Amino acid sequence: MHPDLVRGTRTALGTVALVAGPALLGAQAAPAPQSQPQPSQKGTVELGVFGQYNTLPSGTDFTSTSPTTVGGRLHLGLGGGLGLELEGSSAGVSRAARPGLADTDARYTQLAARVVFTTQPFFRGAAFVLGAGTVRSDYEYTFRYGASGLGGVRIPVGQRFALRGDAIVNLLPSSGETELGYRLGLHTILGPYAGSTAADRATGNRTATEAGAIELGGFLGVVRHAYDWNVQPSGIGGGRVGVSLTSRSQVELEFGLAIPDIEDEALTASTARPRNGTDYNYVPLTLRYNYNVPLGKSHGAIVGLGVTRADYGWTHNWGPSGLVGYRIPVWNGVQLRGDLAATWLPSANATDLSARLGASWVLKGL
């Protein structure tokens, strides 16, 4: 071959390699957008909405066993790829006609809490998400608790958004049934938060936490139930789990159980009050945002606001919940905690009041 032709060919091939090579490599292994915080980062907060197609057990009396629910999700980053997700979804359904009764409207609701692991990005920022936790499936006329598993893919969109596609399976051991769900949603990232503020680090207050710190606790107390619901005040016990977003801010999930006695009054509204001689459980489930105020070197005050689902067995209602409390560190992350909580149920025009004492164990962020 002519020497000039050889040199020209080499020059052309070199030019193509210099121009196209980086583009092709970038298309094959583009890194995750560095400006977008990842859910695995400690203190990251992510909010999302999703639509979900469900496959329910055939034993339900819904006219369709494949309702489509709409829900929301809160993701709290703990660090090391781990996160805590709290979610709820719901849909209006129709219950099948029964002898002497026509079809009636009802509501199917799922409430779930899971620990999730997000893998390192593998292609253009996409990552796998795996999770396991617990679920409460509410069929309105009955509800069941069980284990819940999740597998999905997270795909970043721009700097502050991400698409999530998930498949879930709920195992309900009390009935031996299985629920399946397939969902697609859009999430927005509120950011990772810095850890302890400079002021809290300077004071050295023992109640100040760091982003990603986990609080596990339990409590005992008394509750005054909704007035004129034919229910006596009762003892209550429960547990809570919280995740710190900053040295003072915290998201907390709380569960309680009480078995109140029924008054011996004559019933004036049997549809809204329990019948005499029947036992009922009172189960409040609350998601709350707490703001912790360090006081001096050791103590701290708590102010919280959130939403509660109050289940009285014969009826359940949703409403806002407020809390004021006090915490005292005692030893190596263990804290004593007392608080007063109030829940207003607007649909029933009722208010529940409770006073609780408990203890918590605060684990440092991962």
Notable features of this structure?
single chain, about 375 residues, mainly beta, eight-stranded antiparallel beta barrel, eight-stranded antiparallel barrel, 2 helices, 16 strands, about 55% strand, flat, disordered N terminus
Structural class: mainly beta
Distance between the termini: 65 Å
Q: What is the H/E string?
A: HEEEEEEEEHEEEEEEEE
Helix percent reads: under 10%
* Spatial extent as radius of gyration: 26 Å
Number of DSSP helices? 2
Largest sheet: 8 strands, antiparallel, barrel
The 3D shape can be described as flat
Overall average pLDDT: 80
User: Which blocks of ≥5 consecutive residues have pLDDT under 50?
Assistant: 1-34
| DSSP strand tally | 16
Quaternary organization = single chain
Spatially, the strands of the biggest sheet line up as 1-2-3-4-5-6-7-8
The percentage of residues in β strands lies in over 45%
Structure commentary:
With 366 residues, the chain is mainly beta. It is 9% helix and 56% strand. The protein contains two helices and 16 strands. The strands form two sheets. Strands 1-2-3-4-5-6-7-8 form an eight-stranded antiparallel beta barrel. The chain has an eight-stranded antiparallel barrel with strand order 9-10-11-12-13-14-15-16. A hairpin with a 3-residue loop joins strand 12 and strand 13 (299-311). The protein starts with a helix and ends with a strand. Residues 1-34 have low confidence and may be disordered.
